[in-house]
Amino acid sequence: MKVENQKAWYFVMPVLLLVAFNALIPMMTVVNYSVQETFGDNLFFWQGLDWFEKLLRSERFHAALGRQFLFTGTILAIEVPLGVIIALAMPRKGFWVPVCLVTMALPMLIPWNVVGAMWNIFTLPDIGLLGYVMNHTLGINYNMTQDPLAAWITIIVMDVWHWTSLVALLSYAGLVSIPDAYYQAAKIDGASAWSVFRFIQLPKMKQVLIIAVLLRFMDSFNIYTEPFVLTGGGPGNSTTLLSIDLEKMALGQFDLGPAAAMSLIYFAITLLASWLFYTLMTRNN
Fold first, then answer.
1. Residues 7-48: pLDDT tens digits?
2. What is the phi-psi region of residue 232: left when phi exceeds 0, alpha when psi lies from -120 to 50, beta otherwise?
3. CA 89, 92, 96, 101 torsion: positive or negative?
4. Burial class (CB in 10 A: 0-12, 13-18, 19+), 200
5. Helix (H) / strand (E) containing 108
6. Measured distance CA(158)–CA(226) in Å, rounded
7. Closest by CA position to 182, among listed 194, 208, 200
8. Which stretches within 140-239 are classed as H helix?
9. Which residues of 95-133 are buried (b: 16+ CB within 10 A; e: fewer)?
10. Of 9, 74, 202, 209, which is most buried with the most CB atoms under 10 A?
11. CA-to-CA distance for 130 and 123, rounded, in angstroms?
12. pLDDT per residue over 197-207, tens digit each?
């Protein structure tokens, strides 16, 4: 009879305790605020599930959630195919391999608030390089501080510039792990480039693409710093994503009860959507 060794739990226990301290305890504080109302001085009044009910019926919440899904869907539709295309174009051997890898990794090394500040200065209509060129050289009326469409295009392009590298590097890792024997067999059979991609490269990249999609979904759905620094949620509320609206409610209006309820709903939506993504993408494995 084989006896299982349970001593490995001793190595995992510090991590579990750290997660409990950094995640579970603060979450219980949020749960506590979500069912109560406070006006300061550590005075709390029981509200029950009223905040959740009011929030789910709020047009403001629905609008912010819709903008969040629109942003995340657009990001995934652009960055995943673009990252795969870049990975396919990157060299597999030679001097340019480390050059390409370092170049692709550079945008991800820049802090989030710096990315927002860079793009804010870069796109300002009068003093920004991009804004000045588009308005005064190309004759295109571009002003992200006043035009909602321009603001949306700007935050999407900014995120694509910042995070497409992650998808590209993960896809590249999947590509270089494919043995040369597969390509040799495809060459002998006279397979086209599309057939090689469809039947060899794409199936071999499936696992890393699942990771890429999940990471990009969770990050883009919870994005805050870059769009907040770039547009502040404006013009008006046109780029007020769910995270920005949550910050305005919690810190701007000091409505801690509704903000706590929103954060829990936000967490539940992220968790549910991530589970659905993973389940659908691994169903045939």
1. 777 788 888 888 777 777 788 888 888 888 877 677 778 888
2. left
3. positive
4. middle
5. helix 96-109
6. 8
7. 200
8. 148-176, 180-188, 193-196, 202-221, 225-231
9. eeeeebeeebeeeeeeeeeebbebbbebbbbeebebbbe
10. 209
11. 5
12. 999 999 888 88
Q: What pTM was computed for the model?
A: 0.87
Contact indicator for 282, 211 with CB cutoff of 8 Å: no
Q: Which of 9, 30, 10, 71 is nearest to 256 (CA)?
A: 30
Eight-state DSSP code of residue 154: H
CB-based contact 152:238 (threshold 8 Å) = yes
Give CA–CA dist 26/30, Å, rounded: 6
Topology classification of domain 55-281: MetI-like fold (1.10.3720)
Secondary structure of residue 250 in the 3-state scheme: helix
Residue 206's nearest CA partner among 84, 78, 72 is 84
Distance CA 193, CA 80 (A): 20
Tokens of 235: 């013009």
